[in-house]
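Researcher: Structure prediction, please.
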Amino acid sequence: MRRDQTELPSLALCALFAVLAIGVTLLSGGVYRQCTTRAEKTGTGRTALSYLTNQLRRSDRAGAVEVTSFGGGDALRLEQEEGYELLLYCYDGQFRELYAGVDSGAVPADGTALFPMEVMSVRARSSRIFLALTASDGGTWETSVSLRCGESAL
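Model: Predicted structure follows.
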């Protein structure tokens, strides 16, 4: 008789432990999903800003950086080796780059799509370039880059 009396509480404790373990697993799955979704949203914007910043720093020399418009929005034109340029812009819901000859007659659709992004805003003030990216969900990311060669780069 004593054995039967101890088996019932033991089984109840095991069942309670199993139910709690399943509950914790389900809850942590939801938290993980939220974290990865948030990281994806912010990761794209941060990656695009990092890419823009590195391209600007790479082209930081006198007369090599120009704020212009291309594809119906703001763009950066970065002079490359003789006769070539790199255009960075947003077009058709994508952040794009276009490496082409200076007078090649390229159109915005020719660029390579890098990231999903709706709008890129570029402003130059003195030797500083202000960049803002806006995603289709309304998220925005901003940064500024000070060119080392000063206003002569613009």
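Model: Residues 67 and 76 are 5 Å apart (CA to CA).
Researcher: Thanks, that helps.
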